[in-house]
Amino acid sequence: xxxxxxxxxxxxxxxSITGNGLRQSLSIIGEHIPLNMIEYPxxxxxxxxxxxxxxxxxxxxxEDMEGNRIIDFADCNLHLLGYSIPFQGVIRRxxxxxxxxxxxxxxxxxxxxxxxxxxxxGFCVPYNIFESLDRSHxxxxxxxxxxxxxxxxxxxxxxxxxKQEVLLHTYIGHPSMANDQLSGPLTLMMACKWLLDHQDSLxxxxxxxxxxxxxxxxxxxxxxxxxxxSHLIAGYVVAFTGDRGQLTFKMSKDKNSLANRAALNxxxxxxxxxxxxxxxxxxxxxxxxxxxxxxxxxxxxxxxGPGRYKEYHTSLDNRDILSEESIKDSAGFLIEIxxxxxxxxxxxxxxxxxxxxxxxxxxxxxxxxxxxxxxxGRQILAIWGLSDxxxxxxxxxxxxxxxxxxxxxxLHKATEAGIIRTERESEHDTKSKEQNPV
Length: 438
Ligand code: ZN
Fold this sequence. Notes:
The protein is of the alpha/beta class and 438 residues long. The chain has 3 domains: 3-52 and 150-343, 3-Layer(aba) Sandwich (Aminopeptidase); 54-147, Domain of unknown function DUF2172 (Glucose Oxidase, domain 1), CATH 3.50.30; 347-422. Helix content is 31%, strand content 22%. It is built from 13 helices and 18 strands. The chain has an 8-stranded mixed sheet with strand order 1-10-12-11-13-16-14-15, with helices on both faces. A 4-stranded antiparallel sheet has the order 5-4-9-6. The structure holds zinc ion (ZN). Zinc ion (ZN) is lined by residues 174, 180, 313.
């Protein structure tokens, strides 16, 4: 997948929380990841919410009475208020102004404004243009369609040996902006590429969600909460991952969740500059996953984060502020977390009563000389030596100050040598890989 090429294809589409721009975007993503399109019909109730009408835009513009076009949706889809109802007519300047949204302190920027749950019409304009509107009358043409339809979600599922699932979630429901929201899908697509390349050896299953923000995630949870509660072991919301700010990991609500431990182990043993935030119910859709009653332990991966960069929700959130390096780094972090979850298992000792004699088993050098490579043998002894005290491989790796997945070979050798047993091994003895996904 070429990230920038995919970005260029997705960027111009008129996405919203429903509509054809959203479907087109999901079908482009679906060229790279096997995605199921789920359609939730208008009026469907989801907890405290309801799926709204579907919104599509044919054209929208504002002209003066001489026919000079001042604003055109065709130039930038941010010009139209998100979910604007249709409106046609000639109106006085004083009537028009309350329908225009602008940002005085960013005079060149078009603000991103929506009215999903109350019917309004309107345009979003740079303050420079707003200020120059000095005619008495204007012609408004908003040809939109707001009618019963459906809300679309893209869902992928990669089956591993276990039916236990890791959830990878991002947003897809904003029009032409880059960091919010295309960075999340692009990062997730990169991580999914890794999963697809390793699909035959995955221990866990992966549920991949591309949801319109808030309502899409709430709708999905309302339909799948029972399944997720019994299958989910960790979740990650991936959004705002493309700006040049440093990597930010926002923890899930329970500090000791697997979602947190798998990620913190990577951050604490690696070289990435980063910051760690506790869970707060502000931000992206980790709010829904961690909400009372839902409580699916879901952390968030971002850079600066929502509202914490000046171009947020304006036309200045464009290709210029997007860093391919940040996307790669964010995806690399997520892949390392996945490798940690894949590697993790509960461990208990089989051999007891002083150290096992590893050289007898061909796992330690018999030459007592400085400079001999003892690293694998030492890792095997460390895993065994902590196995009756530490809960799992991540806990052992934290003590050894290495990424959990870097102990894969030592774990395998120690299991093979019969000095420890892993929970996964006993699982695999009894359960063979099932062929049919849920
Ligand atoms: Zn947003």
